[in-house]
User: What shape does this take?
Amino acid sequence: MQNTAVQSNVRLPMPLMIAAFVLLVLGLVLTVPSNPEWWKVIVLGVVQGLTEFLPISSTGHLLIAADLLDYGGSIGGTFEIFIQFGTVISVVAYYFRDLFSQLRAVLGQGETPSATHNARRFWIAVLVAFLPAAIIGLLARDWIKTVLFESPQVIATSLILGGIVFIIVERLPRKAARTADLEQISYGQALGVGIAQTLALIPGVSRSGASIFGGLFAGLSREVATRFSFYLAVPTLGLATLVDLIGSFDQIAPSDWGNLLLGATVAMIVGWLSIDWLLRYVSRNTFIPFGIYRIIAGVIILALVAVGRL
Assistant: This one.
């Protein structure tokens, strides 16, 4: 069977490299002259790119980093959500050739009937996994942004509890994975991943961590669960960005667009690099180090709250 859904591209296609460079330069041109905080935008883009695909919560890190930097361009949380779109593009760039091949297959132009069937079945599974978080996120969007996004205590608690869960789960005996091929994920397994991903609506939980461990519990191999989490990021983060952008459009000033573009572009470039690293890491290691890191980060955040720094 042609494994179109799992092949990756270590090299970024030249047109995408040129596009990334142009967007980066454009973002700098639009931001640097008018915004003395332009370097903070770059730092936050790096934070987003590094943490989106690692199971340590990009949203939690981004919100805390913005608070510590005293960044004034949040636009009610829209900046932190919008630059996630950069990491969506990084997934598309990393799997560019495979996604193009799958698109052809979904449209009925696959090399064989089985390739077309497998591609359509795979993307239906992605849709099934996407729906739970999409529905709950849309219904609870305002509450999440106004309550959970404003609480470093929530982020710290989520990081600590998630870290403990990581360590416990990794030390528990687990049955052999039932699914070691991305194209063979069942709709039931996809739904299990999707339900687990809803936990990531709480800042500090980690979308990638929740979906990966949801996949492990559903019987996916570690590598397949990780790759499925990457593909699931495309509709999940893409829709979250679109919905928030539409809902906050009237709050975005013309000068804000440079910040959004620069942050998203930096996140895209760094995110692409972190995908490759994580794929190599999970093939040889457990997530226990991430669990330990989460606990330490959560304790540090609580300490900063206690001394009035957050």
Remarks:
- Residues 1-8 have pLDDT under 50 and may be disordered.
